Amino acid sequence: MIKFLTFLLLLISPVIASDVINQRQDSMQDFNKLMRAANQSLKNSEIEILAKIYGDIESIMKTYPTLFPNDSFDGKTKASNDIIDNREIFNQIANDTAEWAALAKIAAENNDLEALQQHQQNLYGSCKSCHSRFKN
Asked: How many CB atoms sit inside 10 A of residue 104's CB?
C-alpha cells in the first residue's frame, strides 16, 4: 500500500506543480490588469474606483507567495530557483507590495491624489524589484 501511495504521489506531483504554476501566472496577469486599470484611473482622475482596484491587488499579493512551493520550479515557469534560497526576501517583497496597495486603497478612500500617485509608484517599484531578482 505504501509503495502504491508513493507511486501515486510521484505521478500526480507534476500535475499539482503545473496547476500552481498556472495559478500564479493567472494571478500575475490579474495583477498586471489591475495595475493598468489603476494607472488609467489615475490619469483620468477616476479616484472612486481605485479603492476596489487596490484592495484586489492587496489580496493577490497576500496569497501570491503561497503559489511557489519548492517543487514548482520546473516546466513552463519563469520563476527563478532563487526564490527557494531567498524565500524571506521574496515574501518580504510580496508583503511590501500588499502594504503599498493597502496604503493606496486608504489614499483613494480619502481622495488623496498625491499619496495615491506615490503609492502607485511604489507598487511599480516593487514589481521591478521582484522581477529583477526572481524572474528568469
From this structure: 28
Q: Are 57 and 101 in contact (CB under 8 A)?
A: yes
Which residues, 6+ apart, have CB-to-CB distance to 38 below 8 Å?
50, 53, 54, 57, 104, 120, 123
Within 8 A by CB and 6+ apart from 132, the residues are none
Read off the pTM: 0.84
Which domains can be identified in the chain, with CATH numbers?
2-134 (1.20.120.10)
CB burial class (10 A; 0-12, 13-18, 19+) of residue 32?
exposed
d(CA 130, CA 61): 12
Cross-strand pairs, 79: 135
Helix (H) or strand (E) holding 100: helix 87-109
- Residues in contact with 51: Cβ distance below 8 Å, sequence separation at least 6, in sequence order: 105, 108, 109
The pLDDT tens digits for 87-127 are: 999 999 999 999 999 999 999 999 999 999 999 999 999 98
Burial of 100 (0-12, 13-18, 19+ CB in 10 A): buried
